[in-house]
Amino acid sequence: MKRILFLLLFLPSFSQAADFEWTPRVQQAYLDIFKLKLNKGRQELAPELKTNGVALYLDDYADMLSLLLTEDRKAYESMEKNGEKRLQQLEDMDEDSPWNRCLRAEIRLHWAFVKIKFGKEVPGAWDIIKAYKLLDENARRFPQFTYNKKALGMLHVLIGSTPESYRWVTKLLGLRGNIQQGLQEIHAVTQKEPLFRTEAQLIEYLMQGYVLRLSGREVTDFQKYLAQNSDNLLIQFFGNSILMKEGHGEAALALAQNHPNSPEYLDIPFFDYHIGEILLQKGQYAHAITAFQQFLKQHPTGNFVKDATYKEYLCYALAGDEAKARTQYERVKTIGQAHNEADKSAQKACNAAYQPLTDPQKLVLKARFAGDGGYYETALQNLKNTSEAQFSQPYDRTEYNYRKARIYHRMNDFVTAIPLYERAIALGEGQNWHFAPSSCLQLGYIFQLRNDKAKAKSYFEKAISFKKHEYKNSVDGKAKAALTEMGY
After folding, report:
1. pLDDT at residue 340 in the model
2. What's the mean pLDDT when you consider all of the chain?
3. What is the pTM of this model?
4. Is-annotated flag, keyword Nucleotide-binding (predicted)?
């Protein structure tokens, strides 16, 4: 309670507007909801929902987190009108408070993310535009209102990372901002708003991890941040995802297997999916299959169903069980949906008639997964007796060079990685595979690190120039973010 009272003293004077009060009860609810103790947080909010706009906003925050992290379509269908109802209530509250437009904007963002998650991209995009307009107006009316910078800064980063081919759309819609501006705004919240510091820090790490890149020092700082917030399930979930992305398989596995899981926390099925991925990287195929099956049992529809099934196929194939591998390969074609890049990639990989993997293909896959998890010695051991000449198909030759380059790149052996990336580009030019554009992106990063801006710029622009491949959105976004970071 002392902590809550301390934080209340340091909230900006804006917070005391009659319709928008961060009372001790509301502050405790916020902290619980942020930790994914959603039922507890909602109970704390209940007495203030009719009169306090902050309570309405936090109730909506709980809805968003629940829907995004469980992907429960029935719950979505029963809750999808909640946002508009809360917006109507907020519109009747004090318009002279900076909290009014700001919280309305954040509710718009909540439902934008939810709609996009459930396949309603166009309505979700319009909610983002409406949120931006509210936040931008609020910033002009109340320039000293720091909290507004949390959501506005995030939007400025995302707008700034928009690929060049879509920049005309953001300009036409009046959406302006750049990455550095956005990061500075989010950082201002971490410095000036004690209550919201931890959430703003998480947004900083998410922007760095998914839009830009985390440096080695930033990964170390992030791991300290995770240790300091071990009881926060939301932070641990995103921590698990980012550590996997950064190739820290062992740390990610420990986190996924030891996350807070008492009944007061939201149950998130995606931890099992992540555990399955890491065990696949480690070559523990039977245990990986068990984890994927547990995920699919809890989450039989929606995102990552195709990908989890595809990875079950890979586990069986790499373990030498051809009958079960074929069964899972065929299932990928008929189950789940292909909205995100992982599921699109799984669908594409299984479009052709089933063919057993060759021994060289198995070695490349084992090396790829081991490298992705940070198990570099295992990865190189798998590639020890392979060469490009062992592959008859152009696709396989291209993948071989790209996967080998990624392993050496992750080991900071740029001298070995560069010609392998260049070979992947040469082999993949004109194809709709992601290996060539992904190689361009990675070469851009290498030359950016070497401070060779001309070469980095050339490779980032070339990465964007590839027209069709399953990772185009993410490759283009990362390349654009890097160009912006370099001042282009």
Report:
1. 87
2. 92
3. 0.89
4. no
